[in-house]
Amino acid sequence: MRFSLLPKLYNSPARRLLPPFHRRIRFNYMSTDLPEPKPPITAAEKVQKFQQVFHSSPTDSWDKCWDQGLTPWDLGNPTPVLVHLHNTGSLPKGRALVPGCGSGYDVVAMACAERHVVGLDVSDIAIKKAIELSSGSPNAEHCTFLKTDFFTWCPDQLFDLIFDYTFFCAIEPELRSLWAKKMSNLLKPDGELITLIYPIDDHEGGPPFKVSVADYEEALHPVGFEATQISENELAIAPRKGREKLGRWKRSLHRASL
Ligand SMILES: C[S@@+](CC[C@H](N)C(=O)[O-])C[C@H]1O[C@@H](n2cnc3c(N)ncnc32)[C@H](O)[C@@H]1O
Predict the structure, then answer these.
(1) Distances from the Cα of 164 to the Cαs of 16, 53, 98, 150, in angstroms?
(2) Mean pLDDT per segment of 10 residues, for the chain of length 258 residues?
(3) Which atom of ligand 1 is nearest to the CA of 79?
(4) Is the CB of residue 165 below 6 angstroms from any atom belonging to ligand 1?
(5) CA angle, 158 as apex, 144 and 115 as ends, to 5°?
(6) Which one of 76, 98, 140, 149 counts the least CB within 10 Å of its CB?
């Protein structure tokens, strides 16, 4: 009863009798000056914001972006083509590595009794996220996460498989030959490197830096890798379709033993 009288009171001269609290409610309720809801931030704006923070902090750039949740590359799920390759038995078993593993979805997705997967990332926050994610998975016992720098890390065992998605494009282009050398040093002589070649376009700057198949060849051929497959990634997520290829690389045993 008390509440049903309020609208009448608001519209009558007797509204002055209302206590200040109720007058305030009326003012907000009637106002047409309410702030417009902000439009959702676009993918391009997210990348721009990430780059701003990334370049503002040369020493701990990645950690800072992880800390602020500026991770526009993160699918929030495992990479569909990797899941497909895993489910169809098309990935080498044994020991696998995901450098620059971020939240670790891909590490968990391909870990199994026949394949132990190491995820490494230079960001402490990324690694903490990945450990938290994996701890809820039945595959947790087949994963290891390490906070370390890919370029200086020297494990005591080599790998049968290395999977690179958005790590090659995340590093400075001048580091690409070092990246290839490190891949070569970390893989067993008959090990396989699987890359998702992305983003294939012609934008300037980064990360992510633009890439092409030729960029991978230029880095990988000198250390003996040859492509066994380069194909369009039909399972790329919609915004990346047409700008992403699957590249599978192996060393010819003859050249690798030289
Ligand atoms: C673009 S993100 C990709 C993350 C993940 N692969 C994905 O697709 O969601 C690049 C990642 O590489 C990590 N990173 C950059 N430089 C690194 C380095 N030298 N060693 C290890 N990780 C590095 C960053 O912290 C970041 O998590």
Answers:
(1) 69, 24, 6, 12
(2) 48 56 47 76 91 89 95 96 98 98 98 98 98 95 98 97 98 98 98 98 96 98 98 97 98 61
(3) 8
(4) yes
(5) 50
(6) 76
